[in-house]
């Protein structure tokens, strides 16, 4: 997909690897949405080569690989899809989880913790700088 689709003012697109439920596939316009259950859905764009896969996977849980732009609010503006694959085998229903004969239990005694103090501001500053922005300037 071309990157000259009106998002150049946001800078260079970034690599994207995101999972969610594929919705609103429009093969004519090459658009769709990915519901990530994080209070919003992510707009997607795809070219004709992915049209059949997009239609086949609509309403399914998928993994999307591509390139996209992130807003100043740290949300995906749009992702141009390079590859899409189903992940439904990794998604379980509540009933399956409750009836799992070998459930994964949380054991607070085996939790791995950081051995050194973790500077959240420094971590976020590194992320923002990697995106070409300044930390603390919203």
Describe it.
With 138 residues, the protein is α+β, with helices and mostly antiparallel strands. The protein has three helices and five strands, in the order E-E-E-H-E-E-H-H. The protein has helices at residues 51-57, 94-98, 120-130; strands at 14-26, 31-35, 41-45, 61-70, 76-86. A five-stranded mixed barrel has the order 1-2-3-5-4. A hairpin with a 5-residue loop joins strand 4 and strand 5. The longest helix is centred in the last third of the chain and has 11 residues, at 120-130. The protein is flat. The model has no long low-confidence stretch (mean pLDDT 82).
What is the count of DSSP helices, taking H or I runs of 4+ residues?
A: 3
Per DSSP E runs of 2 or more residues, the count of β-strands stands at 5
Low-confidence stretches: none
Sheet/helix structural class: alpha+beta
What fraction strand? Answer: 25-35%
Order of helices and strands: EEEHEEHH
Helical content, roughly?
Answer: 10-25%
Major pleated sheet? 5 strands, mixed, barrel
The side-by-side strand order for the widest beta sheet comes to: 1-2-3-5-4
Distance between the termini: 30 Å
Average the pLDDT over all residues and give the rounded result.
Answer: 82
């Amino acid at each position: 997909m071309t990157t000259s689709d009106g998002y150049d003012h946001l800078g260079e697109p970034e690599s994207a690897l995101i999972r969610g439920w594929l919705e609103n596939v429009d093969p004519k316009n090459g658009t769709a949405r990915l519901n990530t259950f994080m209070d919003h859905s992510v707009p997607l764009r795809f070219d004709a080569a992915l049209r059949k896969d997009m239609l086949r996977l609509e309403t399914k849980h998928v993994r999307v690989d591509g390139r996209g732009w992130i807003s100043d609010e740290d949300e995906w503006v749009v992702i141009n899809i390079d590859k899409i694959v189903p992940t439904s085998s990794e998604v379980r229903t509540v009933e399956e989880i409750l009836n799992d004969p070998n459930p994964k239990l949380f054991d607070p005694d085996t939790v791995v913790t950081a051995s050194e103090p973790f500077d959240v501001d420094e971590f976020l500053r590194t992320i923002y700088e990697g995106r070409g922005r300044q930390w603390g300037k919203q």
